[in-house]
Amino acid sequence: MTPHCPPSALWGTTTPLSPPSASPTTATQVRTESGGGGGGPITALLSPHIVVLLAVMLALPPTLRLEGLPRSFAAVQLHFHWGRSGHTEGAEHLLDGHRAPAEMHVVHYDAERYANASEAQHHAAGLAVLGVLLEVGDEPNAAYANILSHLGSIRYAGQTTSIPSFNVQELLPKRLDRYYRYNGSLTTPPCLQSVIWTVFQQPVRISMAQLEQLQGSLYATAADEPSVEHLEDNFRDPQDLNQRPVLASFSSSQGYSTGEVIAIVFGTVLGCFGLFLAVHFVNKRLWQHPEDPGTGRRFQGLLPTRGFR
Fold it and tell me: Where is this region: Disordered (predicted)?
C-alpha cells in the first residue's frame, strides 16, 4: 500500500458524499472557456507525490479556465486514481456509500491572485479541483482512449511522453449542472487545506478494458530498479466532514431536467391519445357488428338497446 496523507482530520477532507445530506444552493453550471491546448502537445508524466505515491498526470495549457467560481482559475494538470487489478473500487469520493472504480481530477489554481499552482496551494481556496467518477460501461470511451492509449510510453516512474492536444470538455460528464461542492484539501501529499472541490454527480463510463489499462499497465518503480511494483490503490479513503457543509447545485427532489420532464409529459399525452383511439375503434366495431361471430347472439350486455332509460 502506497502512503497517502496522514489520517489526521486537520489534513484530509476527502468526503463520503451523500445526496440526502447535501444542501441545495444556486450554484452556476461548470464550464470551461477552452477545451483544448491550442493544438500543441500535452505532456504526460508518471511522477511521485512524495515518497512513492504516484499518479498519471497531464500538464494542461493555462488557457483552459474554469467558470462558475468567484475568480478565474486556470487548469494546470489532470490525474487519475484507481484500485487494483480485479477490483472495482478506486475512486476517492463516495456517493450514497458507493465507491466508483476510478476517479479523474482536473486541478486548477487561482490565476488572478497567484503566479502558479505551487504558490496557490499554500492559500485557502487557492486551488479548485473537478472530480469525475469513472464507472464501467459496455463500450470504450473514445475521449479517454486518447489518453490511455499512451500509457505504454510511461510505464515506469519518471518517464514522460508527449500526446496530441485534446478537448478536456469531452472527458467531463454531460450534466455539468449537477454537482457537489465543499472546501477541503489535496488528497496527496502535501495535503494542504486549499481546495474548492467540485464533484459531479453523473459519472463518465469507460470500458472494463480501459479500467484494466490503469490497473495493470503501470509501475510505481523506475525502469532500472531490480524489482518492480505495480502502481495500484493510489486512492485515499474518505475522511470525516468535521462539520463542513457539502453544497449541491440541485435539490434532492430534483430528479429530472426540464427536457426530461417535457419528454415525459409529451409521452404521457401521446399514450393517452393512443388509448383513446383504440377504445374508440373497438367501440365502433362493436356498433357496426353487434353479433358474436361464434354464436350469432347479440352483445346485449355491451351495447345500449332502444328503450333504455
Answer: 1-39
Residue 259's H or E segment, with its range, is helix 258-288
Letter for the amino acid at 53? L
* DSSP-derived pairing of the beta strands 179-184 and 195-200: antiparallel
Give tens-digit pLDDT for 291-303: 555 555 554 443 3
49 domain-assigned: yes
Work out whether strand 23-24 and strand 247-248 pair parallel, antiparallel, or are unpaired: parallel
Q: What is the pLDDT of residues 74-133, one digit of tens each?
A: 988 889 999 999 999 999 999 988 999 999 999 999 999 999 999 999 999 999 999 999
Give, as one character, the DSSP assignment of residue 31: -
Half-sphere exposure of 44 (CA within 13 A, CB side): 21
Query: Residue 79 maps to which CATH number?
Result: 3.10.200.10
